[in-house]
UniProtKB/TrEMBL annotation:
Its main location: membrane. This is Ion channel. It is found in: Membrane. It comes from Devosia albogilva. It is a multi-pass membrane protein. Keywords: Ion channel, Ion transport, Membrane, Transmembrane, Transmembrane helix, Transport.
Amino acid sequence: MDAKTRAEEAESGRVARLRSQLRVLYHGQSPAALRFQSAVLLVDLAIIGFFIASPLLRDAKHFLWIDLSIAALLTLDLVARALASKHVLRWLRQLPVIIDIFILATLLAPAWFFNFGFLRILRLWTLTRSSVFWRPFLKRGLAIYREPIQAVINLFVFLFVVTGFVYTAFAGNGRGDIHGYVDALYFTVTTVTTTGFGDIILPGTFGKLTSIVIMIIGISLFVRLAQAIFRPAKVHFPCPECGLQKHEPDAVHCKACGHLLNIPDSGNH
């Protein structure tokens, strides 16, 4: 075996060990892995807070440096998650990963993707696709609140995505009533709630069509939120016999097939 072959095998072994370590950190249940996942979650939440405030901070002196620093963090996270995955190509095809890659592009090239910067708030939605986000709720026996919390987050993300779109598309064109980010947020909330004070409107046919879409989707999200809050709470516990995903917290038998269930109580779930 020549020196080049040995060097290639050594390099392959180092990559395999790195991937194994990252897989343990991102998906393991050891105390060290849980601390790492909690730290990543806190960083993600801080980044999302910056994304929400970015329209108001865009003119700040150090905004671009913060933007690029966050891009570096997201790049490291994406590369690490790719190495931690067993099937990289399958991982790349997942919608949350595609959204994260697009968000990274808006950070790395803000001049090119400025008009799509409002989509960065979708990072909050991709975060809720991770089991790490929900682990604190499961530990405290709050699994039955997962659906209402997800509905609130979906509505929250929708509000800020639409606000960013309205602000980007209609502010400063001299034809409408949107003169700042707060105006866009105010218009979005009044439209979604169908309050419609009429003091701020979007001009032209495109503005009317935009308002119609906002109202239709907003009402649907409000109905979804009301259903999640007021209908009987259920826990996520797949039936081993028929696969029914949700049951009442105190269910003894599956209501679909009658199979005996063993649902953990709130202290263990």
